[in-house]
Amino acid sequence: MPSDPPDFVHIITVEVFYICVNFLHEVNAPIRRTRITKVESMPTPAPFPETLDAVLEYFSNRTPQAEFAVEGRNRLTFSTANQYVDRYSAWMDRHGVRPGDRIALIAAPGIPYVLTLMAASRLGAIYVGVNPRYSRDEISHVIETTQPTILLHAPAPGEGDLATRAADAAGAIPVHQVPLAAIAEGPATPRRSPATSRDVAVIVFTSGSTGRPKGAALHHGGLIGASHGQHDHLDGEPRRYLSNLPINHVGAIMNTTMGCLIGGGTLIFQARFNPAGVLDLIERERVQTWLQVPAMFTMAVNHADFDTRDLSSLRSICIGGGAVSAPTLERLRSTGAEIFVEYGQTEVMSSLSYSDPGAPDEVLLNSIGRFDPRFETRIADQTGRSCGTGEIGEIQARGDCVLRGYWGNEQATRDAFTVDGWLRTGDLACLRPDGNVSIKGRLREMIKSGGYNVYPREVEATIETHPAVAEVVVFGIPDEVFGEAVHCAIECRPGATVTGEALKAHCAASLANYKIPKVFAVSAALPRLGNGKIDRAAIRTRGATTAGAA
């Protein structure tokens, strides 16, 4: 177990909150008794859920027959799902899983995934998701880092024999298929999780854009708090969510699972992303909240079926994991849904900021919205001073919204925090005069060219306005004259082409000459990570190799 990050200074703690509530309760007791005569006969409100599985139990008691999850022809109500989780946790108990143990799962998004997540929580164990597209070496890295008590697997479309791949990577760790038959049979003995809100619920491995992926230990309270934040911003009522992000990703665990369930909504699973299937699910299952990364949205809106499908059920569309292009945003607007952008990362339970309802295109294209006031956040310079409006600094966060640490890596945990307990996100940003926050790039990606600071996101945003451009990555390459030269990689929209000269002229209208890329590398498709995001490290490596050869 990693050591705790430095102590945090909280504006108000949960304990203080409840002391205040109890004090007011006692002060106003005579008033209550004289004005309200039926309070004593009303049921006592259930305690607020502190663990992931308690959210499921909460709604199984209040809306037992409401749909919990849909996967193809399989449908589960909250009541049935809660019973299945009790049986599943009993099965895990018989196989030696104890509180604090890790449970690893290789599977696609679907019912086996969400039941495993909930059963691990109910046992007080820790869920570790593994992407079925991982190679044997990538699976082995996860296993070696977390040392799970058991490695589970469930069928994933297009991934061949997962059982063999799991067994090859597991070593001496027992490997089992998710016991769906056992889950669906026999009596369900109710269980209560021994975990608390501060205990680690899941370990999520970062993308590994620099070095080997690290396992971020995320706790129950942080994930539930982030889920409430998303529900309050996007939904405000039970919603039907499309859930198709990889099960090892914080976007799946928080955004498209707990963000839905915290409001009593329904998970509509898609085991493997494909744009035609997404549009079909939205129409057939009347999906109301659609949250994806930009590349997924771009592929969906460019699909031939987009204009013919009935997408009128959509109430909220949320873009996370990067900026979307103007043409894609325009197509999404045609659905009539409210559109949001959000910002976050694994280490902050996924989301720290959201755009306002009704935000105009300019805000959605050029900002990440406003920081959620329930979280401690700041934009700070290298000395720790909070930056003023227009000043560029690093986004930092602290309190209950940040990870407990990197599993088994105390040095990385220490390095991630300032001396006064702020998590360093590595993201550069500035506060705009309108109160929204604009991302300028990654701290490690800032380019120093000829003595000038060049922020990749600013240049990318300009290039994205060209009608032929679908995706763009701006990066620095070592240069003998300038220290670093600005380069970029371009992915064109389907059927479109563009030249470097045309893009240079396009940039010249909006950017200083030192910000204009020296090289525009245009390709049919940019490399991507397993979670669908652009693989910036691979693009930089390829750009450096090409520049060196030249």
UniProtKB/TrEMBL annotation:
GO terms for molecular function: medium-chain fatty acid-CoA ligase activity. GO terms for biological process: fatty acid metabolic process. Pfam families: AMP-binding, AMP-binding_C. InterPro entries: AMP-bd_C (IPR025110), AMP-bd_C_sf (IPR045851), AMP-binding_CS (IPR020845), AMP-dep_synth/lig_dom (IPR000873), ANL_N_sf (IPR042099). Residues 458-533 form the AMP-binding enzyme C-terminal domain. Residues 59-407 form the AMP-dependent synthetase/ligase domain. PANTHER family: 2-SUCCINYLBENZOATE--COA LIGASE, CHLOROPLASTIC_PEROXISOMAL (PTHR43201:SF32), ACYL-COA SYNTHETASE (PTHR43201). This is Uncharacterized protein. It comes from Antarcticimicrobium luteum. The lineage of its organism: Bacteria, Pseudomonadati, Pseudomonadota, Alphaproteobacteria, Rhodobacterales.
